[in-house]
TrEMBL record:
<feature type="domain" description="Sugar phosphate transporter">
    <location>
        <begin position="50"/>
        <end position="340"/>
    </location>
</feature>
<keyword id="KW-0472">Membrane</keyword>
<dbReference type="Pfam" id="PF03151">
    <property type="entry name" value="TPT"/>
</dbReference>
<feature type="transmembrane region" description="Helical">
    <location>
        <begin position="39"/>
        <end position="59"/>
    </location>
</feature>
<feature type="transmembrane region" description="Helical">
    <location>
        <begin position="79"/>
        <end position="104"/>
    </location>
</feature>
<dbReference type="InterPro" id="IPR050186">
    <property type="entry name" value="TPT_transporter"/>
</dbReference>
<dbReference type="InterPro" id="IPR004853">
    <property type="entry name" value="Sugar_P_trans_dom"/>
</dbReference>
<feature type="transmembrane region" description="Helical">
    <location>
        <begin position="270"/>
        <end position="289"/>
    </location>
</feature>
<feature type="transmembrane region" description="Helical">
    <location>
        <begin position="116"/>
        <end position="137"/>
    </location>
</feature>
<feature type="transmembrane region" description="Helical">
    <location>
        <begin position="296"/>
        <end position="317"/>
    </location>
</feature>
<keyword id="KW-1133">Transmembrane helix</keyword>
<feature type="transmembrane region" description="Helical">
    <location>
        <begin position="192"/>
        <end position="210"/>
    </location>
</feature>
<protein>
    <recommendedName>
        <fullName>Sugar phosphate transporter domain-containing protein</fullName>
    </recommendedName>
</protein>
<keyword id="KW-0812">Transmembrane</keyword>
<feature type="transmembrane region" description="Helical">
    <location>
        <begin position="170"/>
        <end position="186"/>
    </location>
</feature>
<feature type="transmembrane region" description="Helical">
    <location>
        <begin position="231"/>
        <end position="250"/>
    </location>
</feature>
<feature type="transmembrane region" description="Helical">
    <location>
        <begin position="323"/>
        <end position="341"/>
    </location>
</feature>
Length: 351
């Protein structure tokens, strides 16, 4: 799964280009998190720690994309919903360990029934986005998947207008033109274009944008603000419960099929366990990058990650690319950068 998917910020200003699983809620105050020395014991400089965290963020985000593509397309494990459910179960277990045992962040309880239903609604949108993203990897290359994912700002602006009636400046809307135009060019030039894969990837991208807008509406009050790792602790089990009947209905007795495959080929056990672990690391490293740098740095890294993931996937899977396809992808990324800068200037002007 991974609706591998960074996300937008809670106000929709950070186009999520990286991982499908990343849950984006404002981080807790610095007084509630550990400093560099508590992690390294003072033996490693802060700059080295930050560089290692950023490298881990890149590796986990690109790694989960490549592993999903390999499992779903090349290895022949054609069960994207069950794979997404494994990711959610992994996030549930690792989140519990990180919060209750390692105490990386303070534990936060759900405060009310209303807040519970808000988180459940986010989980449903999250499931839709991640399942669509993983399903698309069965039919289209990672490079094309990332190009489509770069259009997140467009859908964020659309949903923000439809749901909250929020209007952006003309400069922001103009920046969205190359975002959409680039993906049109890339789609027309994609040698491995698949209509169903394209549509479900669009659905995944729209789902990520919708989640960011709804998340901003539901969980932005000071009384209900939840740390991203605590939010994942609650959302992952809910998402697993949502996905369980879906995978049984659509994919059949996939658990028995997986056990049978494991008896014939033990390699699939390591693939699935590794894939699920990396899916959680996407969330953990996303939090660590934001903690040790800033949301703006994560935004810049996310813009570059799509291009890096596309290049790496082409080198590994050898999928054909065209000059027009690469040009379209480049135009889309340029539009994303212009959009981010326009949003930043709009916020400054509004102060």
């Amino acid at each position: 799964m991974v609706e591998a998917q960074t996300w937008t910020t809670r106000r929709g200003s950070n186009p999520r280009l990286e991982s499908e699983l990343v849950v984006d809620i404002p981080v807790t105050p610095t007084s509630e998190v550990r400093n560099y020395s508590s992690i390294t014991g003072g033996l490693i400089s802060p700059n080295v720690v930050t560089a290692l965290i950023i490298a881990s963020w890149y590796l986990s985000n690109i790694g989960v994309l490549l592993l999903n593509k390999y499992l779903l397309s090349f290895y022949g494990y054609r069960y994207p919903i069950f794979l997404t459910m494994l990711h959610m179960l992994s996030c549930s277990v690792y989140s519990f360990i990180a919060i209750h045992w390692l105490q990386l962040v303070p534990y936060q309880q759900i405060l009310s029934r209303q807040q519970f239903f808000k988180i459940a609604a986010l989980s449903a949108i999250f499931c839709f986005s991640v399942v669509c993203g993983n399903t698309s990897l069965r039919y289209i290359p990672v490079s094309f998947n990332q190009a489509i994912g770069a259009t997140t700002p467009f859908f964020t602006a659309v949903f923000a207008f439809l749901i909250t009636c929020k209007k952006e400046s003309a400069e922001v809307y103009l920046a969205l033109v190359p975002v959409v135009a680039g993906i049109v060019v890339a789609s027309n030039s994609e040698p491995l274009f698949h209509l169903f894969g394209f549509l479900v990837c669009i659905g995944s991208t729209a789902g990520r944008a919708l989640k960011s807008v709804v998340q901003g509406l539901l969980l932005t009050s000071e009384a209900e603000k939840i740390h991203s790792m605590n939010l994942l602790l609650y959302m992952a089990p809910m998402a697993s419960l949502i996905l369980l009947p879906l995978t049984l209905y659509i994919e059949g007795n996939v658990a028995a099929i997986t056990v049978e495959k494991a008896r014939e080929d033990h390699y699939i056990v390591f693939l699935l366990l590794g894939n699920a672990t990396v899916a959680y690391l996407v969330n953990l490293t996303n939090f660590l990058v934001t903690k040790h740098t800033s949301a703006l740095t994560l935004q810049v890294l996310g813009n570059a990650k799509a291009a890096v993931a596309a290049v790496v996937s082409v080198l590994i899977f050898r999928n054909p690319v065209t000059v027009m396809g690469m040009t379209g992808f480049g135009v889309t990324l340029l539009g994303v950068v212009l959009y981010s800068e326009s949003k930043k200037r709009s916020r400054v002007a509004a102060r």
